[in-house]
Amino acid sequence: MKTYSWIRALSITAVITGMMLMPGPISTLEPLVSVEQSLRLEAPPFVHIAYAQEQPTDFDLGAYLDQEAGISAYYKSPDAITLSQVRSQFRTIETETADYIIGSVAVPNHDENYDVHVYVHTTGWILAYYLRPDPVSKIIDMYNVTINSTRLKTVVAIIAGAVGAPFTEASYYDFRYPNATHLLLVLEDSGNGNDFTIQIPSSYGYFERGWALRNRGCPNTTYFKLDGVSLFEGWQCETMNYGSISASQFLPDVPHTIAVDDEGVLILIYRVP
Question: Structure pTM?
Fold first, then answer.
């Protein structure tokens, strides 16, 4: 079992020391990918701006997203977007005006259940999001088993690529938790000891706790366990599963053990005071 002294919350622009973990060096972690990743959460600057000349007076984008969206990723193209450039990327289009499109875009190699909702505006803004009822763990790319990207980032890249925009990184925000500041991901796999211990500090505020799991083997039992209790267990072959963890199951200032088979990710949305 791996035990750690710190998780470092890696924001887009800075390194912030944060989550308390049990003693041991992070540098010993394998596989050779980022085993922990923390993204800063920041509200899109365009959401509550009234495009008086660009949006119909009966459409308030901020109010719409506050009711519709959960976790999101966004990016602004340096150039204006012609909607005809991106229309073919949508599986379905819910709303289209001369200035924006709202619809759903497929995630490569995923079922329609994983389609991402997308807002594209001619001013260059691209916003990808899952719906409010969806657990935040749904963004994790368990098909490729990585926390260096997300399903939302993949879809933003698809739209940016369609217009030739130089996309490299997305910004993140959860419309359900406007006071949250970070999103933490911790990856574990059965080829790397399959478990770790984590202790989160009570000085932070926590909004959502979740998990994601992939079963590559067939047939064999796959599971995601928290303190020895299975949050998910099954025999499915080549499946991806995800869900939420209740606050009472993951109390702060208490060591918790995560165990997975085959590959799993713990995810937290939190606020740094």
Answer: 0.84
